[in-house]
């Protein structure tokens, strides 16, 4: 009967519309997943670079602290050396003054 045919045609049309909508949703979901994976890869790369930069910064800071410590130690050695030179010069001057007063 024609009413049955019309009902079946409408049902088939509804089925096709539903299937098309599902395909469209699946495609949109796939694109969204692809973009999110791409963004995650970029974020991972940026994070890895950031970790490396922080590591280099901390290493440079540690080196600077070590350099500063060695500089301080050298400064103290230089101070002691100059103090001993000054003391030796004072002794020498005192000897010369003592010789001059004789």
TrEMBL record:
Record protein name field:
Uncharacterized protein
């Amino acid at each position: 009967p024609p009413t049955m045919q019309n009902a079946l045609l409408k049902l088939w049309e509804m089925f096709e519309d539903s299937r098309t909508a599902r395909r469209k949703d699946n495609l949109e979901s796939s694109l969204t997943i692809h973009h999110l994976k791409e963004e995650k890869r970029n974020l991972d790369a940026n994070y890895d670079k950031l970790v490396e930069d922080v590591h280099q910064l901390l290493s440079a800071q540690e080196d600077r602290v070590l350099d500063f410590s060695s500089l301080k130690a050298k400064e103290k050695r230089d101070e002691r050396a100059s103090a001993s030179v000054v003391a030796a010069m004072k002794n020498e001057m005192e000897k010369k003054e003592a010789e001059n007063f004789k």
